[in-house]
Amino acid sequence: MPSRTAIKKEVSTATTAAARPLALLQWYDRHRRRLPWRALAGEMPDPYRVWLSEIMLQQTTVKAVGPYFEKFVARWPDVSALGRASQDDVLRMWAGLGYYSRARNLHACAVAVAREHGGIFPDTEEGLRALPGIGPYTAAAIAAIAFDRRTMPVDGNIERVVSRLFAVEEELPQSKPLIQQLAATLLADTRAGDSAQALMDLGSSICTPKKPACSLCPLNEDCAARALGTQEAFPRKAPKKSGTLRRGAAFVVTRGDELLVRSRPEKGLLGGMTEVPGSDWLAGQDDEAAREQAPDIKGIARWQRRVGVVTHIFTHFPLELVVYTAKVEHRTRAPEGMRWVPIATLADEALPNVMRKVIAHALDI
User: Fold this and answer.
1) What confidence tens digit (pLDDT) does each residue in 279-336 have?
2) Hey, which end of the chain has fewer CB within 10 Å, N or C?
3) Orientation of helix 62-75 relative to helix 47-57, angle to 10°
4) To 10 degrees, the CA torsion angle through 129, 132, 138, 141?
């Protein structure tokens, strides 16, 4: 038979666990962030804005997303309007935000919602997951925030809060199922969306990766990592693999005030985006082999190699590009599959960041 002390401890723990969701909501009501996509207290959330922000925020910061979100909703105020847009227009508006498969999936999802659902998002996780580009986390986030479904999405901020609160020793990503289970205990009986956003805000403003402001946290007296004095050691993470360096060449050709560009294949890395001609990106590739893949353009006697290299870090590998430049006469035709665009309008092209770096390096802009 359990001792009186053990019974008392179990009752105390249960009481604390029951109090956590309420404490979170009380804190959130006082300190919630004002974000362009977030409904004000008492307002009904707009599923379109919730969905758009969740797609944009994947692997990107709130600060980076803000201006892009405002541009998108100004041009396409609802999902039907976005569904009527061309993919090229969406990619142009997305340029610079990275992870471009998100933009293609965003457009495909808008088309599907407009055509198959009459412009109305499904209000369940199952229905949302059937749409292009919506995985388990995004479906849970939209279901909770837009439709108040009682589910807990777990992003990086929530992962950090929960792993510290319960001192989860198992390393990520293996600990994800346990963290998901523990996070669900922080859901209030009502206001599921606010419960999730409270944890997101707590991780963003208080339970930060470095030097968390534990004295301001509404859960500080109940935090296992704080009790151990090891807050910054959580979440436990396996060593990161950096990937193998790939190398290549980029060829920047100008015709007066125009630049030679082409579109990348629809599928694959940076699919459908605009780029200058270039070589393959391969591990161990030498400069001579990359240089031999220069485009065949009439009138180019020799390529000028720019001093230095352009570096860029993708999710799975770092990249180094040697940059070559050349100028051609005004009547020079673009090779098949390529086109001339005015340098003055490059901001309107769907150029990924790596290409913006290449062009800036080549043209000193």
Assistant:
1) 999 998 888 899 999 998 888 878 999 999 999 999 889 999 999 999 999 899 999 9
2) N
3) 140
4) -70
Q: What is the largest CA-CA distance in the chain?
A: 94
Active-site hit among 10, 43, 54, 221:
54
Distance CA 202, CA 216 (A): 10
- Look at residues 104, 103, 131 and name the one whose alpha carbon lies nearest to residue 47: 131
**C-alpha span between 155 and 137 (Å, rounded):** 7
Ordered DSSP codes for 99-143: -THHHHHHHHHHHHHHHHSTT---SSHHHHHTSTT--HHHHHHHH
235 CB contacts (<8 Å, ≥6 apart)?
Answer: 159, 160, 163, 164, 168, 171, 172, 175, 179
- Do strands 338-342 and 310-313 pair parallel, antiparallel, or not at all (unpaired)? unpaired
- Give me the torsion for CA of 35, 36, 37, 43, rounded to 10°: 80
- Global pTM reads 0.77
Instruction: Give residue-wise pLDDT tens across range 60-105.
Output: 899 999 999 999 999 999 999 999 999 999 999 998 888 888 999 9
The torsion angles phi and psi of 136, rounded to 5 degrees, stand at: -60, -45
pLDDT digits (tens, 9 = 90+) for 218-236: 999 999 999 999 999 999 9
Residue 157 contacts residue 203 (beta carbons within 8 Å): yes
Asked if residues 344 and 314 have their Cβ atoms less than 8 Å apart, the reply is no
Q: How far apart are CA 136 and CA 54, in angstroms?
A: 12
To the nearest 10 degrees (0 to 180), the angle between helices 47-57 and 136-147 is: 150
Instruction: Report how far residue 241's alpha carbon sits from residue 69's, in angstroms, rounded to the nearest whole number.
Output: 32
Catalytic annotation present for 258:
no
Going by the DSSP 8-state scheme, the letter that residue 172 receives in this structure is B
Shortest CA distance to 104 belongs to which of 53, 55, 46, 63?
55
